[in-house]
Amino acid sequence: MADLQERVSECRRCPRLVEWREKVAQEKRASFRDDDYWGRPVPAFGDPDARVLIIGLAPAAHGANRTGRMFTGDRSGDWLFRALHKAGFANQPESVDMHDGLVLKDIFITAAVRCAPPANKPLPSERDACRPWIDEELDLLQHVRVVVVLGNFSYAQTLRILGERGHPVPRPRPKFGHGAEVSLGSLTLLASYHPSQQNTFTGTLTEEMFDAIWSRARELAGLDPVGVRTG
């Protein structure tokens, strides 16, 4: 897995994404002007023996593209790691940088696209160019039983990938919705709204709704329930 993620971080397959991620890393946001931006494809991370796999959309320009770790350094990550801590998947409720001591248990985090895209909208060709990384990760993650997808983009791409890998995707394909579950033989796909600012600021996604996803993920994965943590 470490070798795979090293290869991910060196990828230059998509010229548009390479140009954008490096431009953002050079220009920076004013509030992060003293930071050394990562500016490369962002590796996946987590527990290699995980029974739950998270698949997000893509790194945020001033989040993971800055810090070099998935969902780290932006508001979406604040929501995600707070929820994962409550549900017993993370040892702490925040992810600030790669050296903050965060440890994940029984969960692994990846994304459909590994480079920050302009306007947070990858092209179909860029989505497809990133597909082999997920295939390799799925080959290595031998214990995964639940795949949690964050947002409709990841939902569609994950169903496409799993179907082509031989999992029995229902026809017609189930519609995306928060809390939707799709049985795929040995796997269950569990859908959630993405914890984007647009969704959380408008109340489309509430903390109660998001917490319920991770409790359900534990249940589907055969993991013991945990009491809600505070702090």
Q: Key features?
A:
single chain; 231 residues; alpha/beta; 6-stranded mixed β-sheet; 6 strands
Characterize this entry briefly.
The protein is of the alpha/beta class and 231 residues long. It is built from eight helices and six strands, in the order H-H-E-E-H-H-E-H-E-H-E-E-H-H.
Describe this structure in words.
The chain is α/β, with parallel strands linked by helices and 231 residues long. It has a single domain, classed as Uracil-DNA glycosylase-like domain (Uracil-DNA Glycosylase, subunit E). Helix content is 38%, strand content 12%. It has helices at residues 2-9, 15-27, 64-67, 75-86, 124-140, 152-164, 197-202, 207-221; strands at residues 45-46, 52-56, 107-111, 146-150, 181-184, 187-192. A 6-stranded mixed beta sheet has the order 1-3-2-4-6-5, sandwiched between helices. Helix 4 packs across helix 8. It is globular and about 45 Å long. The model has no long low-confidence stretch (mean pLDDT 96).
